[in-house]
Design a protein that fits this description.
The complex is a heterodimer. Chain A has three helices and 16 strands. By secondary structure, chain A is mainly β. Chain B is mostly helical. Chain B is elongated and about 80 Å long. The N and C termini of chain B lie far apart (75 Å). Classes of the chains: A mainly beta, B mainly alpha. At the A-B interface, helix 1, strand 1, strand 2, strand 13 and strand 14 of A face helix 1, strand 1 and helix 5 of B.
């Protein structure tokens, strides 16, 4: 009997240590990147621009419409939680009204608190031929009939706006404006505020950063009832008083989509 | 004595049954609950609209005059709004990168904010995108 018990105990031990199929997933090499897009909305104040030449009413009551609203973003960086930056290489975003998502490429996984970029092109890129990069080959973004000499328009914003003093004019009273912003005067760095929550980029999980571009911000501080203040059409005008005022408004155009 | 032996045998048997031969991949042992995405073409109207209605087009979210993300997902307009050219919600060339789908998997700002959709709903949405997002 003792032998039976010993045999049984031995069998127990054998069973306990065998027949355990612990199928762990085979270890795979961790891919340390993910795909990132930036999703950009075109707004006039609180109104998203669905169509060009549609008249929108700003919260102040002033009417405005856009016939063109386009710009360049470049030198885009992701700001990590510790404040260091990851440069997203070789990206020029040519933002047009009808397209919202723009591929920025593969970025390392991790947590990022903010994004930083330039509106416009650096001085070297501003001398490149239009055929050097598909993003540059758009004649409406050239100051002249050809891209060179003369360089590129960094922000092209044109349309009509109610220029009445009280901003309560009719559509018929709206006046044309043309802001072709470029040169170093319009090359502005934008550092977005810390995003809440921080961006958590995980492996192979395509991510989006959502930003609103409010072109109406360019009118801040501009006396609209002076027609001369409605036209910035060449490189020289960008260096004028009104050009400086409008160009200095560029960083305020950008906010996170809530 | 016999009782003690019997009890011991019984205890050993129970112990062996409980502690032996198991496979921790239970999903291979047990038949999974079926998901339509595994077997059939996904209908936007019949399969996805109910998901959007119950999880997205809720007061304060993707409905009303000031919807979140400027996107209304009420049944009457959901397809038109999602398929709006240039919006990025649907990308049939890279379905997994569609904004509609990535929003549902986001760990930064998960959609819906109240909790991730169940696996079957996520599979149906991805399958519909892979099927070229028809208005069906």
């Amino acid at each position: 009997m003792k032998q039976v018990f010993m045999l049984l105990t031995a069998a127990l031990l054998v069973f306990n240590t065998s027949c355990k199929k612990n199928e762990t997933t085979p270890t795979t090499t961790t891919v340390d990147s993910t795909t990132l897009y930036i999703h950009l909305h075109t707004n006039l104040d609180t109104n998203e621009v669905e169509d060009y030449n549609t008249v929108y009413e700003m919260e102040s009551g002033r009417k405005v419409s856009a016939g063109i609203a386009q710009l360049y973003l470049s030198h885009i960086q992701l700001i990590k939680e510790d404040g260091s930056a990851y440069d997203i290489p070789n990206v020029i975003v040519f933002k047009v009204q009808e397209t919202e998502p723009y591929l920025l490429g593969k970025v390392p996984v991790g947590n990022y608190k903010s994004v930083r970029f330039y509106v416009g092109l650096d001085s070297a890129t501003n001398t490149f031929a239009a055929t050097s990069n598909a993003a540059l080959n758009h004649s409406e973004m050239w100051f002249n009939a050809a891209a060179q000499p003369g360089g590129y328009v960094y922000v092209n914003f044109q349309g009509k706006i109610d220029t009445t003093t009280d901003g309560d004019g009719t559509e018929a009273q709206m006046q044309p404006f043309m802001y072709m912003l470029g040169t170093g005067a319009a090359y502005k760095q934008v550092t977005m505020p810390d995003h809440t929550p921080v961006y958590n980029f995980t492996k192979d999980n395509t991510q989006y950063i959502h930003i609103i571009i409010d072109y109406a911000k360019l009118f801040t501080g501009v006396p609209l009832n002076n027609p001369l203040n409605l036209m910035i059409m060449n490189a020289g005008a960008n260096a004028s008083g009104i050009g400086t005022t409008v160009n200095n408004n560029i960083p305020s155009m950008f906010s996170y989509e809530e | 004595m016999r009782n003690r032996q019997a009890t011991y045998l019984l205890a050993c048997s129970v112990y062996m049954l409980v502690g032996s031969c198991y496979n921790d991949k239970a999903d291979r042992l047990y038949a999974p609950v079926s998901c339509k995405a595994d077997t059939a073409i996904i209908s936007f109207k019949n399969d996805l609209i109910p998901v959007f209605t119950s999880s997205c087009a809720l007061s304060g979210c993707h409905t009303g005059p000031s919807p979140e993300g400027h996107l209304v997902l009420d049944s009457a307009v959901a397809f038109a709004n999602l398929s709006k050219p240039g919006s990025g919600y649907i990308d049939t060339s890279a379905p997994e990168s569609s904004l509609l789908y990535t929003s549902l998997l986001s760990t930064t700002e998960p959609m819906p904010p109240t909790g991730k959709l169940n696996d079957c709903n996520l599979k149906m949405i991805l399958k519909w995108l892979r099927e070229k997002a028809p208005d069906n």
